[in-house]
Design goal:
The longest helix is centred in the last third of the chain and has 21 residues. Helix 4 packs across helix 7 and helix 18 packs parallel to helix 20. The protein is of the alpha/beta class. The protein has 3 domains: about 170 residues, Ribosomal Protein S5, domain 2 (2-Layer Sandwich), CATH 3.30.230; about 210 residues, Rossmann fold (3-Layer(aba) Sandwich), CATH 3.40.50; about 90 residues, Helicase, Ruva Protein, domain 3, CATH 1.10.8. The chain has 20 helices and 19 strands. A hairpin with a 4-residue loop joins strand 13 and strand 14.
Length: about 500
């Protein structure tokens, strides 16, 4: 009677925006020949039976003519993707004594098999590496042109073919690879728009949301696309977290691991699953891909109303919670929301040079597509008008990205020191703590109270106005928020309507 053969290797599966460990067990015993896979595998995992069989034979190794059962544990978690091909094949070869087992110890194995025995890379390399690092083991995967994050707890080894396991011929993955040259953009390219640049600088300093309204060609998109040039670099922890999410959906991670903050600009035809996340299996949406970076929504009024309303919870909580029958999946989504919209369908409502052709009802319907609750979640709302000819062709270009970035970095350093001295006065805490952080005198407090009552500011609007005022004071390296800071914050918060915006800005 033949003896039962068993072996176990470590692998992982993607669930939401992270990789979770999975144990791949195999047992070879007497019975009807065939390969069975249990443990909630999806269709791609079930198809691994044929890929594993063909790859092993193409590599000059043998598939035993016995009953083979693979178990993917824990059984209550759904397993997805083709990354289980390699660990299943390796477990089977180790169980039957065709490859040495010592080199497989303390390794997490992930990879897809070709029918000729070569190994292909799968999405989620950074996520798998972080999972392996958490387990204190190394990652073994296919050679990849991508990059891996630096880690003190584990390393990444590569293997080209299934045959390489016979001699344990493993290579080492590079920690960095050369990223493609990035298009150089700068705020010096934008003529005029002093107020809009100031709003962008405040947004970058305080990690604040900004809504721009204006006619076509006024420069809204141009201003937004240059925002990453004045943001500070990602920390190593932020870079690893953002790269993990990008790698899961197959996006390049080179720039992110070099410290460049993500900038996502989805088309207005995006679905709820595409923007917020979802699908089957659940995958991160644009809000999670913009984690630690910027989410730019151009033509905001053209997005589906229901899709836009799905942004409200991520903006408030900094995460996306998606509930499915097999459990709740939470994905990070801390991002700066920058949006741009025309004021009406034709785009020229309130424009002093081009007449609007829209009826009042069409204008109202168009603007209401965004929804008051979403607009209330923007920290700042400004009007952006077309620059004059001289500003475009020969205007003052001294306010460039480098100058703005230096001011942003100084403001963030000042804010960090201020909160270190007074931890209770956090800019993301309650209204009482925000008021404490602002350190207003009696006159400034009375001024703010009168303005809030006159403009019927909601509790959320009051908090966001305080955050803007506190950020403006940080840009000036001042501990106290003065009346002029509050006035500027109100001017950036309260839209007075495009028909009066140029001459009736709150003072």
């Amino acid at each position: 009677m033949q003896s039962t053969k068993r072996y176990t290797v470590q692998s992982a599966t993607i669930r939401g925006a992270e990789a979770i460990p999975v144990t791949v067990e195999v047992i070879v015993s007497s019975g009807m020949p065939g390969i069975s896979i249990v443990g909630m595998p999806d269709a791609a995992v079930q198809e691994a039976r044929e890929r594993v069989r063909a790859a092993i034979k193409s590599s000059g190794l043998s598939v035993p003519g016995e009953k083979i059962v693979f178990n993917l544990a824990p059984g209550a978690v759904k397993k997805t993707g083709s990354g289980f091909d390699l660990p299943m094949a390796v477990a089977l070869l180790a169980a039957t004594g065709q490859i040495p087992t010592e080199p497989l110890r303390h390794k997490m194995i992930v990879g897809e098999l070709s029918l000729d025995g070569s190994i292909r890379s799968v999405n989620g390399l950074v996520a798998f590496q972080m999972c392996a690092s958490d387990q204190g083991i190394d990652l073994l995967c296919a050679p990849t042109f991508g990059v891996v994050a630096a880690s003190d707890r584990s390393k990444v080894q590569t293997v080209k073919t299934l045959r390489s396991f016979v001699e344990a011929d493993f290579g080492s993955a590079a920690v960095r690879s050369c990223a493609k040259p990035r298009e150089e953009v700068d705020y010096s390219d934008v003529g005029g728009h002093i107020m809009a640049k100031r709003a962008m600088q405040i947004a970058a300093a305080g990690n604040l949301g900004l809504l721009m309204m204006g006619p076509p060609g006024s420069g809204k998109t141009m201003l937004a696309k240059r925002l990453p040039t004045i943001l500070p670099r990602l920390t190593q922890e932020e870079a690893s977290e953002s790269a993990r999410i990008a790698s899961i959906v197959g996006e390049p991670v080179e720039d992110i691991l070099e410290g460049v903050r993500p900038f996502r600009a989805p088309h207005h035809s995006a679905t709820m699953a595409g923007l917020v996340g979802g699908g089957n299996p659940v995958r991160p949406g644009e809000v999670s891909l913009a984690h630690n970076g910027v989410l730019m929504l151009d033509e905001l009024s053209e997005f589906s109303h229901s899709v836009l309303q799905g942004l409200r919870q991520p903006i408030e909580d900094g995460k996306v919670s998606i509930t499915r029958a097999d459990g709740n999946i939470v994905m990070p989504a801390r991002f700066m929301l920058i949006a741009a919209s025309n004021p009406c369908p034709c785009g020229y409502f309130g424009d002093p040079t081009v007449s609007c052709t829209c009826s009042p009802s069409r204008i109202s319907t168009y603007q209401n597509r965004i929804g008051g609750p979403l607009i209330d979640r923007f920290d700042m709302c400004i009007d952006v008008w077309r620059s004059d000819f001289e500003d475009v062709v020969s205007g003052d270009r001294t306010l460039d990205s480098a100058t703005m970035r230096n001011a942003v970095q100084e403001a963030r350093r000042f804010a960090f020191e201020r909160m270190r001295r007074n931890p209770s006065g956090s800019s993301k805490s309650s209204v009482a703590n925000l008021m404490e952080a602002c350190r207003m005198n009696t006159s400034t407090r009375a001024f703010f109270k009168h303005a809030a009552q006159r403009n019927a500011l909601s509790g959320r609007a009051i908090m966001r106005t305080l955050r803007v005022a506190r950020t403006i004071a940080d840009l000036e390296l001042r501990d106290e928020v003065a009346k002029e800071h509050v006035a500027e914050a109100l001017a950036l918060r309260i839209r007075v309507g495009p028909e009066r915006a140029k001459e009736d800005v709150p003072a």
